[in-house]
Amino acid sequence: MRMVPNDVRTPSLRAGIEALVGHLAASLGRIEDQLDSDRVSRPVEPGSLSAYLARNYDLEHGHAIGSLACDVFDMLYSGIVHPNHRCHFGLFVPGVQAAGVVADTLTALLNPQLGAWWYSPAACEIETFVLNAFLEKLGFDAGEAFAHFTSGGSEANATAVVLALTRHFPNYGTTGLAVSEKCPVLYASEQAHDSFVKIAHMTGIGRRAVRRVRTDSAFRMDVDDLRQQYEQDKKNGASPFLVVGTAGTTAGGAFDPLPLLLDFTQETGLWMHVDAAWGGLALLLDEFRPLLSSIDKADSVTWDAHKIFPVPMGAGMFFARSQADAVRAFGVEAGYLPDPQQGTVDLYGHSIQWSRRFIGLKVFLTLAELGWKGIASLLRQQTSVAQRLREELLHAGFSIVNQSPLPLVCFTHPRIESGAHSADSIGAELASQGRVWLSAVSLSPNRPKALRACITNHRTNEEDVKLLASEVTRLLR
Ligand SMILES: *Cc1c(COP(=O)(O)O)cnc(C)c1O
């Protein structure tokens, strides 16, 4: 690497941006033209990059931003799994489009603070406008409901648990759970996202408070088991407060039976949260909307824009039926901040975050550029490419082990089932060869892991899924 010493004491924004834009314009061609023919990932020896950094960056003296940008770009280009690559069949990380990159650049440039409305009215209003469009898709009443952007689905799920605890245990926010003599418990299926384990740890209810409800052969929550666990918990003196319905499980894309869960929560008075972090995309395609019927009656919903829109991370979203719970949970008075302006919402007093970056701009610009119609057509294409993959795999002697209609395909092979090969070693071998990238997944504790291919990139086409099927077949020989 050749670093250029920085002789400008305070580099101007203009010089920095010109250098960066020049460099990025040159690299963009490389990203777009080469990435698809280049590897989706390269093996990285642990320790090699830290040694490189220690050798080249003494941090004592400054360097010109242009040379730094070139160097960092090269490190990233060869040192990450590339979600923009057509043969990336990974973990819900979409390929990005220009609108999202432009939005994050503008956000960094103007650096609006969205913690309080009066600080950045234009940015706050853009977020409200785009969130209202999502509320409409959910069927929530925008006049009553409350929504904000989050770093991701984990933060949105944590928000839901805190609101549910605050409503069910009036002492939770004052004296804390130690004063409540009953043991709070929540229900989530054995396929639910493991963020709930961390959230139980952080909120002080403890990891054992997460009751894992059995799933059926299609990995959907078994409502009979939910009822039985609930009755048992009541008998034992525990205090159930929340049911999490997962709409689109992370491992296999299964949808819990939301209407049945809703009946149950209405009957028992429990909070109903729907984790639709990825599966929320079903709301955007008419043919899949029935998978989410009743979501409009939930108390809260998690939905990640960064899993379904071609935008950079992180862009999660949290939706709640009413704002009052958020004020009760997160309301504070900070002596160094002005009072909220009449008719506006200061998010620092309604959510977990305090300082807030302009997360919503990339979602807004992408939606404004493509429209719901454009987004739907990208998703529909991913769905049809996934269907093509299922056909290729069945033809080549694999079997499909999940039943999701969405673009997520979990599959196995007699040679994996017999133990002659493992999904993990196939995944690792593919990653080291770098032509395609996919993961291994454990769907049932007593079965060998399967392979999991998710079509999260709108650029992925039928040739790419053919390559995937033939690469896996080759490794099984
Ligand atoms: C990805 C995912 C999460 C976590 O979201 P992050 O954005 O990664 O924090 C939560 N729930 C489900 C169902 C998910 O798929």
Structural commentary:
The chain has 477 residues and is an alpha/beta fold. The protein folds into three domains: 3-80; 113-360, Type I PLP-dependent aspartate aminotransferase-like (Major domain) (Aspartate Aminotransferase, domain 2, 3-Layer(aba) Sandwich), CATH 3.40.640; 367-476, Aspartate Aminotransferase, domain 1 (Alpha-Beta Complex). 43% of the residues lie in helices and 12% in strands. It has 15 helices and eleven strands. A seven-stranded mixed beta sheet has the order 1-7-6-5-4-2-3, with helices on both faces. Strand 4 (238-246), helix 9 (258-268) and strand 5 (271-275) form a beta-alpha-beta unit. Helix 4 (98-110) runs antiparallel to helix 12 (360-395) and helix 12 crosses helix 15. The radius of gyration is 24 Å and the shape is globular. The site of pyridoxal-5'-phosphate has 14 residues, from helix 6.
